[in-house]
Specification:
The chain is built from 11 helices and 7 strands. It is α/β, with parallel strands linked by helices. It has a 7-stranded mixed sheet, with helices on both faces. Strand 1, helix 4 and strand 2 form a beta-alpha-beta unit. The longest helix is centred in the last third of the chain and has 19 residues. The protein starts with 6 loop residues before the first helix and ends with a strand.
């Protein structure tokens, strides 16, 4: 399963991603003149906020559609995988990432690349899905997929580690963890609710299903989740948990 992204749908159904990034931006504390890599820059909205501090921001994303959206905002963005960054050694003062690392399949390869492109004393500041993230959503979706003979489609889509596990992983790559926090964050979803969330953030899973089954899976998963995540006024809340950290080299 390969996740694909539609910048317009992401803007409509995933605006909360950059809207709730104030905390990790505070941890980054970008300064004028710093060279900062935004890893998994998406449509470039956070890259713009970092650049507004006077920092020199470069964006990278695996989605050509998202790279084009970031470039349209004036961000120097390019398409590349996190596991193979196209930059020279030691050229960045900081690597920043928000809501992207949990999509990376090759975590160790990615961390080796981040370590390589950071200057001595540089920092890696990121927020990603943490242990327990969207647990209810995943269980409901897996149950529906299993019912329709498509069990396993959700397996390995994301990586949501504990603070202890990710600290060990960072340390194995030569990072010193300065701060790390697991943050429960119940998150109000867009007006499109759970169906919009599934079509945006599980587009890759849905695209891997027979065409005639896709809407059924969305509808059944939404129905299954409604008692837990939808209030009496029809407002949906995602059961998000974030892992935020700052590590130095």
């Amino acid at each position: 399963m390969t996740q694909t992204w539609d910048p317009r749908a992401y803007g409509q159904n995933g605006a909360f991603v950059h809207g709730l990034a104030g905390g990790v931006l505070e941890w980054l504390a970008a300064e004028p003149g710093e060279r900062i890599l935004d890893l998994g820059c998406g449509d470039g909205q956070l890259s713009q906020r970092i650049a507004a501090t006077g920092a020199d921001v470069t964006g990278v994303d695996a989605s050509p559609q998202m790279v084009a959206a970031a470039q349209s905002r004036g961000i120097a963005a390019q398409e590349a995988k996190a596991e193979a960054l196209p930059f020279a050694d030691g050229i960045f003062d900081a690597v920043f990432s928000n809501a992207a690392l949990h999509w990376v399949r090759g975590q160790d390869a990615m961390l080796a690349q981040v370590r390589r492109v950071l200057r001595p004393g540089g920092r890696f500041v990121a927020e990603m899905g943490g242990h327990g993230n969207i647990a209810a959503i995943r269980v409901a979706l897996m149950a529906v997929l299993e019912r329709h003979g498509c069990g396993g489609q959700e397996d390995g889509v994301n990586y949501y580690p504990t603070p202890e596990a990710y600290t060990r992983r960072l340390e194995r790559h030569g990072f010193h963890v300065e701060q790390m926090a697991l943050i429960p964050r119940p998150t109000p979803l867009a007006e499109s609710g759970m169906s919009g969330w599934l079509r945006t953030f599980r587009r890759g899973v849905l695209d891997g299903l027979p065409v005639e089954l896709r809407e059924t899976v969305v509808e059944e998963t939404t129905t299954l989740l409604a008692p837990a995540l939808c209030d009496e006024d029809g407002n949906w809340t995602g059961d998000y948990v974030r892992l935020r950290f700052m590590a130095t080299v």
